[in-house]
Design goal:
heterodimer, A: 204 residues, alpha+beta, 9 strands, B: alpha+beta, 6 helices
Chain lengths: 204, 301
C-alpha cells in the first residue's frame, strides 16, 4: 500500500523530472522523425512502454543536455511557458516547422507542498499517447527535402534572467502555416500541450 | 438512392466513436487498398500492437536479418516473431490489394482487435461511398496526408486504453455473396454481424464533388457512355468473368452502369441480401519489444 501511494504522489521535483524527461524523448523523436539527423545516428531504447529513438551523437547529446538542464530549472521554478522546436532550411533560413509545447503550471505548488495525487501509470499512458501522435504526424506533415537545422526556443516569464548561453530572440513564426493540435498530458502540477505548425504546401 | 452512411457519434463505453472524413476529390478504387493498408499500419502502432511504426520495424527487421545471414545461420534458423509478423502483415496487404482490384465495389472494411471476431476488444468500421463521382483524382500521398491529418487533429482515438500487445488483428470485407472468395483467400462468415461490443470506431469516407447519377441514364447515339473521372475498364465483355466475380457482376463499363444503377435503386435491400462478411484468412499478431533494462541514455544535470 505504501508503494501504491508513493507511485501516486507527485511532488514539484517529481513533476519537473517527468516533464523534463518527456522533453528529452520528445525532442529526440522529432529530430529522428523529421530526418534532421541521419537515422543511423540514433539508437533504440525503451521508455513509456515504447521503443524510442535517441541520438547517439555525443555533440548533440551534450548540446541538448545543457539546454534541458536550464529548462528543468525553469520548470521547477514554474517560469517556463512554452518550449518550441524550430526547424529551418539550411539553404535560406526559412522556418518550415514549429513544434510547440505549451506548459501550464500550478503555481500554488511549492517544493514543500504536500504531493498531489495522480497515478504514475496514467501519466505515462498520456505521455505515450503524445509520443505516438508525434510519430504518427509524419504521415501528414510535408516531406522535408532540404537540409535543415533546428533551434530550441523557450518562452519564460518576463522577469526571468537567462544564463549567458541564451539570448533573446523572435518567435520564428511560419508564414502561411497550418496547425494541428496534438494530445496533452498532465502531472497535476505541470500540464503540457503539444502542437505542430507547418508550412502550408499545395497538395500534390 | 444509397448515400454515404452518416452516423452521429455517441459517447460512452457502449457507443460508437464516429468520424466523417471528407476528401475533396476522387479516390480511385485502385488507391483504396493502399488507404486500408496504411490505416492498418497506423492502427497497429497507435493501438500498441507493435513497438514502433511499421516502416521503422521493417527497416530494423531487414538489418537484423542481414546480420543473421552474414553469420551464415540463415538457412538453419526458424523465423523470429518479428519476421512472422512481417510475413503475415504483407500477406494481409496482398489480400487487401487483391480484393479491391477484383471486387466491385468494396463498401465496408472491418478491422477487429481481439481474441476472435465474435469477441472483439476493439473494432474499426471503414465505410467507402459507392456512388459515381467526378472530380480531381487524388494521389495516394495527398489522400493519406488529408486522412491522417484529420484522424490526428480530431484525436479520434482519444487516448483510449489500447488492447494488450499481442492481440490478434482480423480483417473483414463486406462483399457480394456470389463472389469467388477462395481466389482471394477469404472465409465467408454467413452469420457474422458487425460487433456490438467492445470499443467501436467508425470512419466514414465521403468524397466531395459526388455526382449522384439518376438511374435513367440516357445512352448516346453510339451507345457509349462517357463518364469522366471513372477509370477506363477493359473493353472485353466477351472474355467472361474474372477470377473473383461471377459473370453477373459489374466489370465492363456498360454493365457496370446497369448493375450500379440497380444498386442505387435497391440501396439497402441489395446490401442486406446480396452482401455478406468475409474474413481474411490471414490473422496478424503484434508483439511487444523486450529490452534489457539498461542504463539511461540521458541524465540531466
Amino acid at each position: 500500500m505504501a508503494t501504491q501511494s508513493q507511485s501516486n504522489a507527485i511532488t514539484l521535483r517529481g513533476s519537473t523530472d517527468i516533464v523534463a524527461d518527456f522533453f528529452v524523448y520528445g525532442i529526440n523523436s522529432i529530430l529522428y522523425q523529421r530526418g534532421i539527423y541521419a537515422p543511423e545516428t540514433f539508437t533504440h531504447t525503451q521508455k513509456y512502454g515504447l521503443t524510442m529513438l535517441v541520438t547517439a551523437n555525443d555533440e548533440l547529446k551534450y548540446y541538448l543536455n545543457n539546454i534541458l538542464s536550464d529548462v528543468k530549472e525553469w520548470l521547477f521554478k514554474m517560469t517556463v511557458q512554452k518550449l518550441v522546436i524550430v526547424i529551418k532550411s539550411l539553404d535560406n533560413g526559412e522556418v518550415l516547422e514549429r513544434w510547440q509545447f505549451n506548459v501550464e503550471c500550478d503555481k500554488t505548488v511549492t517544493e514543500t507542498s504536500a504531493p498531489k495525487m495522480k497515478n504514475e501509470s496514467e501519466i505515462q499512458q498520456e505521455i505515450k499517447g503524445v509520443i505516438r501522435q508525434i510519430t504518427a504526424s509524419v504521415t501528414f506533415l510535408p516531406l522535408i527535402e532540404c537540409r535543415c537545422s533546428f533551434d530550441i526556443l523557450v518562452y519564460t516569464d518576463k522577469d526571468v534572467s537567462a544564463p549567458a548561453t541564451w539570448s533573446e530572440t523572435g518567435p520564428a513564426l511560419i508564414e502561411n502555416s497550418q496547425e494541428v493540435r496534438l494530445r496533452s498530458f498532465s502531472t497535476t502540477i505541470h500540464k503540457v500541450d503539444t502542437m505542430v505548425a507547418y508550412k502550408n504546401v499545395a497538395d500534390l | 438512392m444509397a448515400g454515404p452512411s452518416i452516423f452521429s457519434s455517441r459517447h460512452g463505453s457502449t457507443g460508437v466513436q464516429a468520424l466523417n472524413i471528407c476528401l475533396e476529390g476522387v479516390v480511385p478504387t485502385s488507391e483504396r487498398s493502399g488507404m486500408i493498408n496504411d490505416l492498418v499500419k497506423y492502427l497497429l502502432y497507435e493501438r500498441g500492437q507493435i513497438p514502433m511504426t511499421y516502416d521503422q520495424l521493417k527497416d530494423v527487421i531487414s538489418v537484423e536479418t542481414k546480420k543473421i545471414c552474414e553469420n551464415d545461420k540463415c538457412k538453419s534458423r526458424s523465423l523470429n516473431c518479428h519476421e512472422v509478423f512481417l510475413q503475415d502483415i504483407e500477406a494481409l496487404f496482398s489480400t487487401v490489394n487483391y480484393v479491391f482490384a477484383n471486387v466491385v465495389p468494396v463498401r465496408k472494411i472491418l478491422v477487429i482487435f481481439g481474441p476472435s471476431i465474435i469477441c472483439p476488444k476493439e473494432s474499426f468500421m471503414i465505410n467507402f461511398p459507392t456512388e459515381f463521382y467526378e472530380g480531381t483524382i487524388l494521389s495516394h500521398k495527398c489522400c493519406m496526408r488529408k486522412v491522417f491529418r484529420q484522424l490526428i487533429a480530431k484525436n479520434f482515438l482519444d487516448n483510449t486504453k489500447s488492447p494488450n500487445s499481442g492481440t490478434s488483428l482480423f480483417l473483414l470485407f463486406w462483399a457480394p455473396r456470389s463472389c469467388n472468395y477462395e481466389a482471394a483467400r477469404l472465409l465467408p462468415k454467413l452469420s457474422f454481424n458487425a460487433p456490438n461490443r467492445g470499443l467501436r470506431f467508425l470512419i466514414n469516407f465521403t468524397f466531395s464533388h459526388i455526382v449522384n447519377r439518376s438511374p435513367n441514364i440516357s445512352l448516346t447515339t453510339d451507345d457509349k457512355i462517357d463518364i469522366s473521372g471513372i477509370e477506363l475498364l477493359d473493353d472485353s465483355l466477351e472474355d467472361g468473368p474474372s477470377d473473383f466475380n461471377t459473370a453477373s457482376s459489374p466489370l465492363h463499363k456498360s454493365t457496370c452502369v446497369a448493375d450500379a444503377t440497380s444498386c442505387l435503386e435497391n440501396g439497402d435491400q441489395t446490401e442486406s441480401d446480396d452482401y455478406i462478411w468475409y474474413q481474411s484468412s490471414t490473422v496478424v499478431k503484434g508483439f511487444k519489444e523486450k529490452f534489457n533494462d539498461g542504463n539511461k541514455i540521458w541524465k540531466l544535470s
